[in-house]
């Protein structure tokens, strides 16, 4: 194999593949007339990315990912030439040479997945950043570490929850299709971050994949189980509050400084206003009042400040509507004006101190 590629483009592709794949997975580089393909796989995951390149001699090799990633990151050159030299892959510059050991050849990524539909990549990534943020990072039940990806007709629904909160985003599909899978949240977020333009959604037996111009990521799916918006009662709303999400978030940050270790603060709803209050025995107490549009009775739910900030961050720059239910039922947050992505955020209240 002998190929010349743009150093920064190759570095970006190799770094993305390395982040998606498990540690110590080798990367398979293949050069041909179409350019350079970077691929890797294990029993659960397959990644394939492309990089523009000029192939002088077609061929493929497998090299360790980590040293390739680190070497490309620090190169200060426009082009890099990759040449097989015996049992090494040499990275050549005008004034330098780096050589990586070749690993045993692996089979190419051959996941045969059927494309179900397509979605706008920017809207997909934006929705995933919010929804995947509510998934648990580590949980004995895989159900809570995934994002449920569902489509019915021309609408795509993304759902995730860590038991204390749930986010549901709906966005339009470019073509109608049926899909219902639970995908690891961290992997799906990373794949969406790398994607651009139109993103294809694919399925196969026990697998799910996303594709875009120059990339494909396919993974084994989790058990979708009962992760569903319908599992959260939301029909007992007795108070609604509408105000600036940014203003409320700023007040939460200030008042939250005085909260106890659990960082729980109280949202007291009054006539045309909300009052945030918290107290800490060793540092004192704080309260702040904001003007708001209020409908319904007075109520005083308590929330963990961090979770409330995460929820409000999903509506940054917008006016948010809080639909509050009595007792320990979830508070439902939605944007006052729905855009391309329709987001619903469920936040469980906390017992006050």
TrEMBL record:
<protein>
    <submittedName>
        <fullName>DNA polymerase III subunit beta</fullName>
        <ecNumber>2.7.7.7</ecNumber>
    </submittedName>
</protein>
<keyword id="KW-0963">Cytoplasm</keyword>
<dbReference type="InterPro" id="IPR001001">
    <property type="entry name" value="DNA_polIII_beta"/>
</dbReference>
<feature type="domain" description="DNA polymerase III beta sliding clamp N-terminal">
    <location>
        <begin position="20"/>
        <end position="104"/>
    </location>
</feature>
<dbReference type="InterPro" id="IPR022635">
    <property type="entry name" value="DNA_polIII_beta_C"/>
</dbReference>
<comment type="similarity">
    <text>Belongs to the beta sliding clamp family.</text>
</comment>
<dbReference type="InterPro" id="IPR046938">
    <property type="entry name" value="DNA_clamp_sf"/>
</dbReference>
<keyword id="KW-0235">DNA replication</keyword>
<dbReference type="GO" id="GO:0003887">
    <property type="term" value="F:DNA-directed DNA polymerase activity"/>
</dbReference>
<dbReference type="InterPro" id="IPR022637">
    <property type="entry name" value="DNA_polIII_beta_cen"/>
</dbReference>
<feature type="domain" description="DNA polymerase III beta sliding clamp C-terminal">
    <location>
        <begin position="238"/>
        <end position="350"/>
    </location>
</feature>
<keyword id="KW-0808">Transferase</keyword>
<keyword id="KW-0238">DNA-binding</keyword>
<feature type="domain" description="DNA polymerase III beta sliding clamp central">
    <location>
        <begin position="119"/>
        <end position="226"/>
    </location>
</feature>
<dbReference type="InterPro" id="IPR022634">
    <property type="entry name" value="DNA_polIII_beta_N"/>
</dbReference>
<dbReference type="Pfam" id="PF02768">
    <property type="entry name" value="DNA_pol3_beta_3"/>
</dbReference>
<keyword id="KW-0239">DNA-directed DNA polymerase</keyword>
<dbReference type="Pfam" id="PF02767">
    <property type="entry name" value="DNA_pol3_beta_2"/>
</dbReference>
<dbReference type="Pfam" id="PF00712">
    <property type="entry name" value="DNA_pol3_beta"/>
</dbReference>
<keyword id="KW-0548">Nucleotidyltransferase</keyword>
